[in-house]
Amino acid sequence: MARATVLGRLTWRVATVAALRQETPNARTIVLDVPGWPGHVAGQHVDVRLTAPDGYSAQRSYSIASAADGARVELTVELVPDGEVSPYLVEVLEVGDRIDIRGPVGGWFVWDPARADATPVQLVAGGSGIVPLMAMIRTRAAAGSTAPFRLLYSVREHSAMLYAAELETHAEAVTPTYVYTRKAPGGHPRPAGRIDAGLVRAAAWPPDRRPLCFVCGPTGFVEAAADLLVAAGHDPALIRTERFGPTGGPA
């Protein structure tokens, strides 16, 4: 039975685009109907494959953004200039189109409310690294979980922030702290800059609470953020990372 389940997740499925939502000028969410979808855990990803009429194909991995509570799968894709896959997904794909997906994939960078207890959860996102963490936030809400969450989200400027309005609806539950690296909006309490040791001490769960930490974003961001958490006293064994970029994985 277990082997059949694993093999099923490695099977390519034809997914139909049910809806599209523009998240920022350069990113949109793709809502997919996936017949036979086996379900997923927040934090997992899928492989997406596009095939041209001449038979050439390209594939990329994308984190699942939706809560783990249904047959639909949502992917939020940010445009990568000169990319092979993201320009088509962000600028060309239309409702009713079909794409191939495979998954869900991943078992380490996941948060499952059915297995969670009162352990605090610290989410740290850089740019589109918020996508799998948003799945965790949505799953927490959908499951009615009371696990204490905090979110530290670094983004270039407010216009590049994914899920800005929705995050505000979760503000009481996840205590978000926003960091703007290039341009901070007027009235923001912190000038533009990167996450630093002082901010980690002020905004993240203290190490003595032993939170489970999820860090996702570009490789350099993830390495720096994980180092800051360790320097602040967090147990490295409780820090889970997912990175993307030229040498990274899904986002």
Automatic annotation (TrEMBL):
Q: Keywords of this protein's UniProt record, alphabetized?
A: 2Fe-2S, Iron, Iron-sulfur, Metal-binding
Keyword Transport (UniProt): no
InterPro entries registered for this protein in UniProt: Cbr1-like_FAD-bd_dom, FAD-bd_FR_type, FNR_nucleotide-bd, MRET, OxRdtase_FAD/NAD-bd, Riboflavin_synthase-like_b-brl
**Which residue ranges traverse the bilayer?**
none
Domain of life from the UniProt record: Bacteria
Q: Which cofactor does it need?
A: FAD
**What would be an example GO MF term here?**
oxidoreductase activity
List, for all copies, the residue spans of the domain called FAD-binding FR-type: 10-111
Return the protein name: Ferredoxin-NADP reductase
